[in-house]
Amino acid sequence: MSGQAGVVDDFDLVVFGATGDLARRKLLPALYHRDEAGQAPPGARILGVSRRALGADAFREEARAAVAEEAKDAATLARFLARLDYLALDAGSDSGWPDLAAWLAQRPEAVRVFYLATAPELFGPICRRLAAAGLAEGSARVVVEKPIGKSLASAQAVNAAVGACFREERVYRIDHYLGKETVQNLMALRFGNALFEPLWRSGAIDHVQITVAETLGVEGRAGYYDTAGALRDMVQNHMLQLLCLVAMEPPASLSANAVRDEKLKVLNALIPIGGANAAEHTVRGQYRAGAAAGGPVPGYLEELGNDASRTETFVALKAEIANWRWAGVPFYLRTGKRLATRVSEIVVEFRPIPFSVFQEDAGLVEPNRLVIRLQPDEGVKLWLMIKDPGHGGMHLRHVPLDMSFARAFGVRNPDAYERLLIDVIAGNQTLFMRGDEVEAAWRWIDPILAAWAASPERPKPYTSGTWGPSAAIALIERDCRSWYEAPE
């Protein structure tokens, strides 16, 4: 049964790391909303698992606090909390697994999902212990969060460890960006409208920009972040997945493997960036003290307490795809922390008209631009040139056809995790990464990391609350283009 319509099949969901940050901020609220929407069968159960010595009632109280802002109806909240149970289990130990097996044995017919909201180094050990306990058989599915490794070699090791216990069709590598309504609407725009697909190629498109900007710093994640950096944390997964959806060929169908086959072709067609061209095609930055959210904020090195760190908190790069559709069309990607505005968007800029008949306003005729915004306010804008009403003569203005999803449909958009969790239960892998996709992305990223490691240059500093280092502006302006910034 589809995860998008009606009640899904009966399920038991086991969340490892159930008392952690991800479960509290994302998973429990997402599960509550799906229950509220009537997408959970009456018998569905959720088992929280972590090392903490916590009883079921105490876990339910923590869950109540996690969904307090979301819960609008007392009866729905009571029904949701009644689904919850808890098991104290150390994922790195051999004890406790018979208790988990006994809990699941109560309903052998239910779809069985294991969500690993844990540190990546526990993915393999948890899967091995699940398999040893006989819990990885039949319809059992496992969900793993990013990061899938820190390099190609480590990603291959993670894939091998998980794959030794669960078949590929039972492995769900989650990237919450792919669950966003606007990302899926990108496919609807491309493949559901005769207007766009004939123009979706180098003959009509000048370039593409993908921006994922955050105003927050590393906050309490400094320890993790310093081992990752923006390239591993954002580009290798989220941003390359967005690039794939923009650039892929039309799939034969929307089946999981048909879509993922086309994304893999894009990753394999990316022109390599490494020692010879990394300085020309990439920029890395690191935020310094400045102002954000109306007040002063410290720099990354101050938050980390390590003046020697060369970890990048900002990346801009120019990617190119060597195929017939996209030859000569640059894809500019930028992402960073402590930037001027929180925004995630894809900008497809079309080529200028070849000749302007509007002689008075010839210099004001701007190219058409399709802006697909993922957050904070999901929607689509198509920028067009029209006559400025009320003026004598033919004077032009650049204005958007604007569709905000919230205004257009008047309904609450499900959070990405809500949609993806239901897709796991429904057995729909379309919005999840396949193992070879993950490895192909790392195969492109690794040479960039190696080039940076070999360079004596430190990340370029930028003031918190700005759009990153000036070198990022130079990266795109060398090509006589500019970063798109939405008008206020």
Which CATH-level-2 architecture of the largest domain?
A: 2-Layer Sandwich
- Give the uncertain stretches in residue-range form: 1-5
Fold-level CATH name of the largest domain? Dihydrodipicolinate Reductase, domain 2
Overall outline: globular
Query: How would you name the CATH homologous superfamily of the largest domain?
Result: Dihydrodipicolinate Reductase, domain 2
Query: Over the alpha carbons, how many angstroms does the gyration radius reach?
Result: 24 Å
Overall pLDDT confidence: 90
User: Roughly what percent helix?
Assistant: 25-40%
Largest sheet: 9 strands, mixed
CATH class of the largest domain, named Alpha Beta
Class from secondary-structure proportions: alpha/beta
Query: Using DSSP, what is the number of strands?
Result: 17
Please give the domain count: 2
Commentary on this structure:
The chain has 488 residues and is α/β, with parallel strands linked by helices. It has two domains: 11-145, NAD(P)-binding Rossmann-like Domain (Rossmann fold, 3-Layer(aba) Sandwich), CATH 3.40.50.720; 178-414 and 434-477, Dihydrodipicolinate Reductase, domain 2 (2-Layer Sandwich). The protein has 16 helices and 17 strands. The chain has helices spanning 21-36, 56-66, 74-83, 97-105, 123-132, 152-163, 181-191, 222-228, 230-247, 256-269, 278-281, 300-304, 405-409, 416-426, 435-454, 470-477; strands at 11-16, 45-50, 84-88, 111-116, 141-145, 171-174, 205-213, 282-288, 290-292, 295-297, 314-319, 331-336, 343-350, 369-375, 379-387, 396-404, 460-463. The strands form three sheets. It has a nine-stranded mixed β-sheet with strand order 16-15-14-13-7-12-11-8-17, sandwiched between helices. The protein has a six-stranded parallel β-sheet with strand order 3-2-1-4-5-6, sandwiched between helices. β4, α5 (123-132) and β5 (141-145) form a beta-alpha-beta unit. 41% of the residues are buried. The model is unreliable at 1-5 (pLDDT under 50).
